[in-house]
Amino acid sequence: MAKVVPHTPIEKQQIERFISCLNQAMVSGQLSQRGLCSKIDVTIGSLTKYLRGDIAPLRVGLGIQALLAQELGVTLDALYAFYQTGKYVTEVSVEQVESWIRSEAGQLDLPRLLASLKDAGERWVDGSLQAHKEAEVASPALYTWPIEELKDAGVSDLFRERLGLTDEALKLLATTGEFEEELAEAFGIACNYQKAAVIEAFTKRTAIG
User: Fold this and answer.
1) d(Cα 21, Cα 183) in Å, to the nearest integer?
2) CATH number of this structure's domain 9-85
3) Model confidence over 77-100: pLDDT tens digits?
4) What is the DSSP letter of 4?
5) How close are the terminal C-alpha atoms of the chain, in Å?
6) What are the sequence ranges of the domains in the chain?
7) How far is residue 62 from each of residues 2, 55, 81, 91, 197, measured CA to CA in Å?
8) Can you tell me the distance from the alpha carbon of 35 to that of 93, in angstroms, rounded to the nearest whole number?
9) Given a cut of 70, is residue 65 above it in pLDDT?
10) How far apart, in Å, are the Cα atoms of 48 and each of 4, 45, 84, 113, 175?
11) Dihedral angle at the C-alpha atoms of 107, 108, 111, 112, nearest 10 degrees?
12) For 76, phi and psi rounded to 5 degrees?
C-alpha cells in the first residue's frame, strides 16, 4: 500500500480554496455534483476526493482547472492566483492590449472595440454629470463596505452577476440601504459569511467583524 503523504500547511490552505471554488461553481451554475463533473470532465469519484480535501489543487490536471476557471468566469491564471493568495488576480498590461490590437484577431474585432470605447466614454461623461448633480443635493454617506469586500475577496464580475449581486442591487444598497434577503444570501456565499450576519451588517450599514 502506498504511503499517504500528509499535506503541508500551504497545501491545506490551497485545498480549502479549491473546495470553495468547486462549491462556487456548483452554486453559480446551479449544478449538482454530477453536473459539475460533466462540466469539468471528471468522474464523481474524483470530485468526491476534491471536495473531501484529499488532493491539492496544484496536483489536479491543467485541463480540469481550465474548465473550472471557465465555469467560474475567470482566467486560468486568475484561478491559480486565487489558490496561492486567496484573490483572483487578473492583470492585463498595456503591452498585451497593444499586441492583441495589432494581431489578426485584434484587427477583426477592432470595430467592436472602438464602439465599446465610444460607449464607455459616453457613460463616463453621463456619470460625471450625474455625480455632479447628486453632489449638489445632501444625501447620506455611501455604504461602500459590501463593494469593497467583494473586491478584496477577488470575486469576479461574472460570478458576482451569476449570484445576483448586480450593479443595480449593490448601488441601491450603497445609496439607500435597501436590499432583498436574496442579496444578503448571495453576498454571504460570495464572501463566506453567514446570511444572518450579512443581514445585520446591511441593516446597520456596517462591516462584519
Assistant:
1) 20
2) 1.10.260.40
3) 889 989 998 887 655 555 655 665
4) P
5) 46
6) 9-85, 91-121, 145-203
7) 24, 14, 14, 20, 37
8) 36
9) yes
10) 17, 5, 22, 43, 43
11) -120
12) -65, -40
